């Protein structure tokens, strides 16, 4: 895992210790979150939620990579462009849309001397991050974990 104030190759990640969980939702004080970082809430041994603020709006999503299930909380976060990169295979996701924006296999496959008939250099997988509904009341951010929606395709 990472420490309280880690810095990955792109931007900062912040592990949020204070949150309350009520069955299908969590509540966090906005003052506990960092505006310039990817805030990570660990709910149990496996399930983690990422929260970031983009254009004065809080966005929450599942930190499980849709490609093969890696923990995106251990990946790299680009706070300037709001991208997160998977630590296992390097797929990069846009946190504004949830879309996969970089397929790391393209670079490797383009080096092959004899390409497969299935090789398509512009192919971007249809993996999308799962977003959760967020509501803000005063200084409390509520995240509904019961219903997740996939990013745009």
Automatic annotation (TrEMBL):
Cofactor dependence is on: [2Fe-2S] cluster
UniProt xrefs under CDD domains: Rieske
MF-aspect GO terms: 2 iron, 2 sulfur cluster binding; metal ion binding
- Which stretches make up the Rieske domain? 25-115
Q: Which Gene3D superfamilies match?
A: Rieske [2Fe-2S] iron-sulphur domain (2.102.10.10)
Which InterPro entries does this chain map to?
Answer: Rieske_2Fe-2S, Rieske_2Fe-2S_sf
The alphabetized UniProt keywords are: 2Fe-2S, Iron, Iron-sulfur, Metal-binding
| Matches recorded under SUPFAM superfamilies | ISP domain
Task: Return the protein name.
Answer: Rieske domain-containing protein
Organism in which the protein naturally occurs: marine metagenome
């Amino acid at each position: 895992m990472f420490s309280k104030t880690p810095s990955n190759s792109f931007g900062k990640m912040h592990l949020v210790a204070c949150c309350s969980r009520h069955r299908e939702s969590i509540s966090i004080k906005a003052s506990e979150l960092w505006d310039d970082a990817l805030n990570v809430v660990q709910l149990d041994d496996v399930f983690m939620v990422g929260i970031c603020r983009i254009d004065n709006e809080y966005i929450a999503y599942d930190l499980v990579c849709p490609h093969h299930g890696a923990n995106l909380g251990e990946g790299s976060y680009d706070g300037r462009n709001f991208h997160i990169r998977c630590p296992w295979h390097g797929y990069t996701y846009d946190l504004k849309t949830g879309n996969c924006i970089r397929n790391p296999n393209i670079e490797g496959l383009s080096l092959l001397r004899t390409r497969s008939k299935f090789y398509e250099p512009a192919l971007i997988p249809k993996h999308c991050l799962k977003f959760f509904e967020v509501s803000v009341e005063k200084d409390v951010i509520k995240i509904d974990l019961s219903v997740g929606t996939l990013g745009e395709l």
